[in-house]
Amino acid sequence: MTKKFQENTIFSKDNFEKYWNDGFIIIKDMLSPEICEYSNSLARIVADDDYGQIMHLHREEYLISQSSKKIESLNNLNEKVLFIKKIKQISKHYEELLKNPDITNYLDWLYSRQMTGLLTNIFFKEPGTKYSNQEWLPHQDNNYLSNENGLYVTVNVAFNYMSEKNGGLFLFPGSHKLGNLDSEKKISYREKDGKPGNKVKEVDIKHIKPVACELKKGDVLFMHGLCVHKSSNNNSNDPRPLLSLGYIPYGEKFDPGFNSKREVKFLN
Question: CATH fold of 15-249, please?
């Protein structure tokens, strides 16, 4: 298939080559500040006191499971029923966000494949909580899904500005060309030590200088599943809510995970 380019748009040859050369690309203002603020406000409703990672916001059963303590703390049955109804609204919203046509059309263009959705996770790094000190070790997202072709894609949506000061990402340009790297397995969901991420070997990436990734509200980072990245902790007073959407081409095999039980979500 011949790739169609549209100069002076996000569908340009320069953007296509940048993604495949670096393993990532940032598209400015892809989502409106209003949708980011609304999405963030919904996620905060189901967040725990520590604002730990929330897994699968688009799946009602996962939101209920992760909100069980909050549900049990409510005063009466009616309040619990109303809260669960709110969870249904939240999961529906995030399912629609996973299907966002601006995002999915861009993925289809980059890969020339029919993409399917796998996950919706949010990482708050809320100031004053234990997860504000969270520093992700250098890792590849594809490592968690074990797709042999490395075709998993992470799409990160900034709900607030993100920089090195408030827990931003550092990306290793071109590291996706190294293929699936061996790694040290680590707990990467509400971990206790504050250093999650299936760490790749330093010797494999020592020749690559990481670059800080700065995003403002509504910017979207498309990241190849084999692109090595890490994050800093948040020493500021500003939260860093970052939504991670996960996609994989239709028909590609992946590890669903013991707890996450990833399921394909068709986007049309």
Answer: Jelly Rolls (2.60.120)
What single letter denotes the amino acid at residue 105?
A: N
Which amino acid is present at 154?
Answer: T
Rounded Cα–Cα distance for residues 202 and 104 (Å) = 33
For the chain, where are the alpha helices, taking DSSP H only?
A: 13-22, 33-45, 60-66, 68-72, 77-98, 101-111, 142-145, 202-205
What's the pLDDT tens digit per position in 1-37? 468 899 889 999 999 999 999 999 999 999 999 999 9
Q: What's CA 119's distance to the chain center, in Å?
A: 8
More reliable by pLDDT, 187 or 27: 27
pLDDT digits (tens, 9 = 90+) for 149-159: 999 999 999 99
Tell how far CA 160 is from the center of its chain. 14
DSSP letters for 192-254: SSS--S-EEPHHHHTTS--EEE-B-TT-EEEEETT--EEE--B-SSS---EEEEEEEETT---
| Distance in angstroms (rounded) separating the CA atoms of residues 161 and 188 | 23
Q: CA-based Rg of the chain, rounded to a whole angstrom? A: 18
Question: Residue 2 has what pLDDT?
Answer: 65
Note whether 56 and 243 are within 8 A (CB).
no
Q: If phi over 0 gives left and psi between -120 and 50 gives alpha, with beta otherwise, what is residue 27?
A: beta
State the Cα–Cα distance between residues 181 and 37, nearest whole angstrom.
Answer: 36
